[in-house]
Amino acid sequence: MTEFGYTLLGEQRGPRRLVEDAVRAEAAGFDFAVSSDHYYPWVEEQGHSPYAWAVLGAVAHATEHMRLMSFVTCPTRRYHPAIVAQKAATIALLSENRFTLGLGAGENLNEHVVGGWPHATARHRMFAEALQIIQPLLVGQTVHHDGEYFEVPEARLWDRPVEGVPIGVAVSGPDSCELAAAYGDAMIAAEPRADLVQEFEARGGVRRPRYGQVTICYGQDESRCRRTAHQQFAYLGLGWPVMSELPSPVSMAKASSAVTEDQVALTIPCGPDLDQHVAAVRKYIDSGFTHVALTQVGGESQGAFLDFAEKELLPALRS
């Protein structure tokens, strides 16, 4: 049976609000919550970007049974992989084993704050090497690593769950699917692509969870929802190869300035219509995803969305 998650989108909410939203999402019946991990918002209109790991710690303490996940953390530039492993182990303990470490190769927007952004080929090699450090640390091994990009003379996690911490790996093509199957307990994808699920399973990921994320903009006024989605999420139309390279919210806004409101509404369902929101989620279910996280556009609309999810959307999806 498919499980449904709520997105704690730090780009559009401050830290205290995110914790409050997580508590409300658990009460509404969401199975899990995922947290973005950014240094910048995508565009200035979103207006926020607190430190995700402090938020996750607070959410772990404030919730009781909803599972948690970073969605996703880049373990190559802002964070050294050995430190990512330590953070993940700590959140797993605070949440009493409700945490999955979601990892990806990152984007210039958030990682350039500590230095230059490598070419995609180098980024993928760095990501693979980071996984070689993180995975054994999380299962209790002492790591000695002298690689192309990272040096770990000696590292061991002193506080971690005995059973380790599950890892989810973001995928976009055959190479990343192979990496996810080798190092991940789950795959993560930003599009409802059945070919990624099939590739992941073919590489050895059979019967492992497959996580997706769908963006919607629920509200009673469809025209207002369309405006909000266009102001805050027009960049989705650029595609990941472009989004991963742009260095700032200003450049993201300029690059997506030609994207129209109608184009955004084709990819983000807007307004009060239950059926269109269900249809957007169903694309992932039909493509073979086992877990789907919902992202509600608009910081101030989270309360209304969570009420809608509890009373209408989640029951409809589960039926």
Assembly category: single chain
Order of helices and strands: EHEHEHEHHEEEHEHEHHHHEHEH
- By secondary-structure content and strand pairing, the structural class works out as alpha/beta
The best one-word shape is globular
Could you name the ranges where pLDDT drops below 50 across 5 or more consecutive residues? none
Q: What is the total domain count?
A: 1
- Strand tally is 11
CATH topological fold name: TIM Barrel
Strand content: 15-25%
Q: What is the CATH class designation?
A: Alpha Beta
Name given to the CATH architecture: Alpha-Beta Barrel
Report, as a whole number of angstroms, the end-to-end distance. 11 Å
The CATH homologous superfamily corresponds to Luciferase-like domain
Mean pLDDT: 97
Rg of Cα set: 19 Å
* Percent range of helical residues: 40-55%
Order of strands side by side in the largest beta sheet? Answer: 1-2-3-4-7-8-9-11
Largest sheet, in brief, is:
8 strands, parallel, barrel
| Number of continuous helical runs | 13
What this model shows, in words?
The chain has 319 residues and is α/β, with parallel strands linked by helices. It has 13 helices and eleven strands. Helices cover 45% and strands 17% of the residues. The protein has helices at 15-28, 52-62, 81-94, 108-111, 120-138, 174-183, 194-205, 222-233, 240-243, 249-255, 261-267, 274-286, 302-318; strands at 3-8, 32-35, 67-70, 99-103, 143-146, 151-155, 167-170, 186-189, 210-218, 270-271, 291-296. It has a single domain (3-318), classed as Luciferase-like domain (TIM Barrel), CATH 3.20.20.30. Helix 2 (52-62) packs parallel to helix 3, helix 3 crosses helix 5 and helix 12 crosses helix 13. The radius of gyration is 19 Å and the shape is globular.
